[in-house]
Fold DUF6537 domain-containing protein.
Amino acid sequence: MARSDDGARGFQLSGVVARQLALWMSYEDTIRVADLKTRSSRFDRARKEVRAKPDQIVYLTEFMHPRVREIADSLPAPLGHMVLDTPWINKFVGRFCRKGRYIHSTKLGGFFLLKSLSALRRIRRSTLRYQEEQARIERWLARIEDLAGSHYDLALEIGRCQNLVKGYGDTHARGLGNFNRLMGAVDMLKSRADGAALLAELRAAALADDQGQALTEKLAGLSRSPEKGRKT
């Protein structure tokens, strides 16, 4: 990436990409969520927040409602694909995902369940989610590098669009959907002199409304608006 950056711009692109790449690589899945929920620092923080006395016991209850997708994502890639692509397996697993469950992370059973799930971090690189995230990251980096030489400001905005991809479950799915919609608009934007500014506006609209309605309206308006010059 540094080879595609502009020293005259203070290597701004490298800084943005490095920061957003670090955030992307720390994505949340069921394994990481379980790890975060069983850390001693979390229990200590909970005691401080409720101002518990040394002789008082504080119980934490987690609401967990994983979808079939999250379960498949946590499995080795071949098994994950099997769960998603085989109708009867998908339906069978879905039976256990219809309702959320309350797990007491400060009691032995709940803590052991979450700790066992967090232990899967040893195989995290083989999971379906890891492989899919790596593929998305590679496409994102390739797009930035491809545009850095001729559309530097647009490449910067593409780098910043990563902050749409965050969270877990439905939040992540909506953010990723919005991100993909913006990436789909890049080919049209790169032919416009104001392409970078427009992508920044689209990103702001997506961040302001994670349901995507504001982004839908912006994209519709963009398709009807005249071009303000072409990028040469």
